[in-house]
Design goal:
Blueprint (H helix, E strand, L loop, with lengths): L1 H31 L4 H35 L1
Helix pairs in contact: 1-2
């Protein structure tokens, strides 16, 4: 039972990390487009909620891993 908690946490962490890499990729693409400052700012601001969400997902996964390891 507790090992499944560790694996679920690891999967959440991996999903969060993939989301963070996706955010990095989107911002890098926006920078390559040579947009004006306002357009670049708008694109980056649109990505910020996804960035924070994936960061939260990754942290929650790490917390699950730590709880699973602590209880094992």
């Amino acid at each position: 039972m507790l090992q499944s908690l560790i694996w679920i946490g690891a999967a959440l962490t991996l999903a969060g990390m993939l989301g963070l890499f996706w955010c990095i990729f989107k911002v890098a693409n926006a920078k390559r487009k040579n947009l004006s400052d306002e357009a670049l700012r708008a694109e980056v601001q649109a990505i910020i909620p996804y960035n924070l969400g994936t960061l939260l997902l990754s942290v929650m996964g790490l917390i699950l891993v730590m709880v699973g390891l602590f209880l094992t």
